[in-house]
Design brief:
By secondary structure, the protein is α+β, with helices and mostly antiparallel strands. The protein has helices at residues 41-50, 200-208, 275-281, 297-308, and strands at residues 9-13, 17-21, 59-63, 68-72, 76-84, 88-89, 92-93, 98-102, 107-110, 115-122, 159-160, 185-191, 211-217, 221-225, 239-240, 245-247, 255-257, 264-265, 269-273, 289-294. The longest helix is centred in the last third of the chain and has 12 residues, at 297-308. Residues 30-311 form the Carboxyltransferase domain.
Amino acid sequence: MSREGAKGLRVIQAGPLAMIEDGGRMGVRHLGVTQSGAADWVSLYWANWLLGNAPDTAALEIVVGGGLTLEIERATRLAWVGADLDARLDDAPITPGSSFAVREGQRLVFSQPRDGLRGYLAFPGGLAAPEVLGSRSTTPREQLGGLHGDGQPLKTGDRLAWRGEPGEERRIPAGLLPPMPRPGCRLALIPGAQIAEFTGASLYAAFNSVWQVDDRADRMGVRLRGPRLESRVGSMISEGIPLGAVQVPPDGQPIVLLNDRQTIGGYPRLGALSPLAAARLAQCLPGQEVRLVAVARERALADYRGFLRNF
């Protein structure tokens, strides 16, 4: 049965940005194709864990909420993890970090964010969507992935189907689900690239100042407002850009590059956020205060492996 005709869930009202995302489109950056995937991959992993899915299974990434309304057409069990977007099932609140049963005719509504920015709605077996270069992730700029394979967010009238059946109910163990970022939250940064080319005063400011998340933030990157950073490097030959790379353009305000970033860049870099820190930044609303904390690569790798042991 086609996705359009499949009985599962129907979009009654499309919110500002709801997209199918999975673990990302890996191994294709040499083609000029970005990684994409869930911006807060930590929440995606836990949402899938609640349903017994593989951690990187395709789910729905919902940004802000903004009135997104979904009508259930087939009974199942869903999972909701990440931001508190005032999600309600027929007016009954849905707590982030939990799974819940739904039946035919019910409606799920997502409103304005109360805590965090992005939530992840997981489905048994993952959402049915075409694989493009090994991933179902939606990438609007490159017109790849998503429900119809064209990189577009969900639209009113779209129908979603899932690829499995619900298993037994699970609960996330106490203390394992990271909270949403708080003012002054610490973001681990692995120094590298051109960090030695920044002035001493700039390095002191970078790691001893409070930075504010700018309203110029999306899945490509997040600009931070704060003291002006200066580098002795002028023009550079463009080089590969990893997830969480912290570039500093001529205006001295850092830009942290996220999942839909360009594949190469020519601005000097302080280094890169750890994968866990990049997921945390993806939940920060404009105006949120954050701090950059330098960590050794070995420490960041140990934290990352420690998290993955949960799965």
